[in-house]
From TrEMBL:
Keywords: Kinase, Transferase. Residues 157-178 are annotated as: Disordered. This is Nucleoside-diphosphate kinase. It comes from the Bacteria. InterPro entries: GreA/GreB_C_sf.
Length: 178
């Protein structure tokens, strides 16, 4: 990753900082790449990031060198996406793509001297942009994703019950009822 300026949300920046601290303790070879990523990034508030910037949980379309275009979701780890659809930001490619703009490319230089050029073709979905365009966002309400399907009146009980508590004091049938 050289000469590219990245835009990270405050959340993505914090995630990378924690990743850097943990990997430094393990002498991980990705530490220099993480340090460069954080040094070459400008940090923006979550609500103001442009829709063409790859953020955590964004679905991105990218190309490695002259290979075929791939579509993946940038995730925190392997367990956060169905098999084959996620690209963890802890990998070389995932880390490189995080914070890039559509149309931007970068060179990944690995410790063994090999390298590959990654081109971010498009950001097909970005959660921050989706949040801004949601219908409830326009009304100032925050959607929880739930929808009321049925609401019974307070005096109606399920299965025709009358709302009384069956057991009263002195009406204990004992252990044989269990």
């Amino acid at each position: 990753m050289t000469g590219t300026i990245y835009r990270l949300t405050t959340k993505d920046f914090a995630v990378l900082e924690v990743m850097l601290m943990r990997r430094r303790a393990l002498a991980d070879p990705a530490v220099p790449m993480l340090e460069r990523k954080l040094a070459e990034s400008s940090v923006v508030p979550i609500g103001t990031v442009e829709p063409d910037v790859a953020t955590l949980n964004s679905r991105v379309i990218f190309r490695v060198d002259d290979g075929q275009a791939e579509t993946r979701t940038l995730v925190l780890g392997d367990a956060y996406a169905p098999v084959g659809s996620g690209l963890p930001v802890g990998t070389w490619r995932g880390l490189c793509l995080l914070g890039m703009r559509a149309g931007q490319s970068a060179l990944i230089e690995r410790p063994d001297g090999s390298g590959e050029r990654i081109l971010l073709e498009d950001v097909a979905y970005q959660p921050e942009a989706a949040r801004r365009t949601a219908p409830d966002a326009a009304a100032g309400r925050r959607s929880h994703g739930l929808r009321l399907v049925y609401s019974a009146e307070a005096d109606r009980w399920p299965l025709g019950g009358d709302g009384k508590i069956r057991q009263t004091e002195g009406d204990d049938p004992g252990p044989s009822a269990a």
